[in-house]
Each structure stands twice: as C-alpha cells, then as structure tokens.
Amino acid sequence: MSKRLIRIASKNIASELTSLAGQELNAILQSGKTYSGKLISVSNEYLTMYDTRQHTHKLAIQDLFEVVYDYKDRN
Predict the structure, then answer these.
(1) What is the mean pLDDT of the chain?
(2) Is residue 56 one of the residues assigned to a domain?
(3) What count of other Cβ atoms lies within 10 Å of the Cβ of residue 40?
(4) Of 55, 68, 69, 61, nearest to 15 (Cα)?
(5) What's the rounded Cα separation, in Å, for the pair 64 and 10?
(6) Is residue 60 part of a domain?
(7) What is the pLDDT of residue 38?
(8) 17: domain CATH number?
(9) Predicted confidence (pLDDT) per residue in 47-56, tens digit
(10) For a Cys staple, 51 with which of 4, 33, 37, 75, CB 3.0–4.6 Å?
(11) What 3-state DSSP class applies to 73?
(12) pTM, whole model, 2 decimals?
C-alpha cells in the first residue's frame, strides 16, 4: 500500500476538505502550532476537528498556514 502526504494551503482548505469528514489530519497555524486529529467539518470560516482526547478544536481558516494528511492508495 503506497502512501503520500497531501498539503493544502489555507486558501484552498474549504474547497478541498469538504468531503473528507473523519480524515486524520494535521492543521498547522501561521504561528507554527500544530493540531492533530480527525476532521469534523469545514466551512469558509472555520475548520473543526477533534484530537485523540476527544477535545474539539475550532480553528479559523485565516489563522491556518496549511493542512497536511496522508493519502492512502488502496492498490
């Protein structure tokens, strides 16, 4: 099973993550702080995710630098 990292810049987050609810991802803020967890929802203003402790994080899209996740090819 091959695997690769997908990086999405902040300006493309809302359009590219809408169908990936439940996806494990890393959200990197402009400050460098990183949140890891599963995507709950994404809108034009906010990305909402929960971490491994089931804490919900609502991050403003304007504060994000990029989102990174693993794309797993099933072949």
Answers:
(1) 91
(2) yes
(3) 14
(4) 61
(5) 6
(6) yes
(7) 96
(8) 2.30.30.100
(9) 999 999 999 9
(10) 37
(11) coil
(12) 0.86
